[in-house]
Amino acid sequence: MTMAGTADTERDRPREFRSVPLGEIETARSRHMWTRSAVGFADSGDLVVTGEWDGTVTARESDSLETRWTVDHPDHAVGIASLAGDGAEDGETIVVAGRGETGTIAAYDPETGAQRWRYDTVDDLGEAVKDTVFYLPYIVALESGTDADGDERLYAAARRYERDGERRQWYSTVYAFDADGSVRWTYETDASPIALDLDADGERLAVGYNRCMGDHDTGLVVLDTATGDLEWTWDPGTEGDRRVGDVSFDGDSIAVSSHGDKRGYLLGPGGAEHWRVDLATETEIDGETLYAYPNHAYASDGRVAFVTGNTYAVESRETDSRHPNEHRVAAFDADGDLLWDDEVRGFVHGLAADGKQLVAPCAQNFRVRDPDTHAVRWFDLESGDGGCERVDGIATAAAVANGTVAAVEEPVEYHDEGETRGEYALRVGSLE
Fold first, then answer.
1. CB atoms < 10 A from the CB of 150, how many?
2. pTM for the full model?
3. CATH number of the domain within which 289 lies
4. Nearest to residue 372, comparing CAs of 91, 79, 11, 101?
5. How many domains is the chain built from?
6. Phi-psi bin for 154: left (phi > 0), alpha (psi -120 to 50), beta?
7. Whole-angstrom distance, CA of residue 348 vs CA of residue 367
8. Strand residues in 109-151 grouped as ranges (E)
9. Of 180, 196, 235, 382, which shows the fewest CB atoms inside 10 Å?
10. Taking the CB of residue 176, how many other CB atoms lie within 10 A of it?
11. Percent of the chain with pLDDT over 70
12. CA distance 278 to 274
């Protein structure tokens, strides 16, 4: 791939990013940590909502960052979505995804923070068999939209992991909720979901499965949103249990980032392959075979972008070199031809997008340990032009609405430096 974006030195210019502290959190170390924070917009972008690792959920006015309300979610608050009401009397709802003992999905009133409904996925997934974060029930993705009948729906993917000696097991459920919290249908598998996306008509839901080590042996399923019935499946067809990293609808097509072969795909109805591109496939450098996972995909208006993550070696955990396409964003046209690519420079926990802009909250590059990689970077999907807001800590979550970006900064201490950089804070600013 060739570089066609804008260097950070060109991106940097004075901006009015405002900040408010979020309290305390354990300082991150050299290697990137699991998802511990969430941020999202509601009330047509006038409200910014944060979810914290201690369960605190706070809604603030986007312009002043003054607190409207604060509540305690039953679990670690690691995901946020906005759900429109089915009528004027219902209004909008803020939905928070949890990771914890109960794996709770809860809906809150945007004006007061009052809880409207609650669903505990532990009743379906089972309880954690070990007292560690990786075993807890976890809501990994939320999507909302209007279905073919004009009704507002919420979709969620939840999973739980356990291990007993050599046996590894996933339990997972995909849910469709009515606006009042009633469960419309569920879809259960023994694989690990990682991503959801809803088509523009609200008729199909794409579910990406990252790890398939049981009876469910396909990386992508497409479900009918009215019934939860399976419409079609697709898989990269690779060996091992790694399958899909992310999915994104664009009309009748679906962009898929493949963990199986480290490529990006654009699929048509039924899983027909329009094209595929090499993103961070296995590459030999100085005697090491290196690769990186394509972790994120976003498609809109005939453009598809993929973001890759950390370098790994086939034969060892540590590497002396880096894959040439690690921590890279690359955008392609409808024919699979490269439009532009650029560095994101650090690990991106989650990609935010609004149709035209991609926002990448960049955490540490643990092999280089360069604090200049800590930033929120954004890119125009068509041209690659954008900007950069540096943070002292690491940016781990982001949201974008109406030209405004919100990001969560977490403190970090590299293991070989002993210096804490940054703070736990919400940062909000303009992309203009």
1. 8
2. 0.95
3. 2.130.10.10
4. 11
5. 1
6. beta
7. 15
8. 115-120, 138-146
9. 180
10. 23
11. 95
12. 14
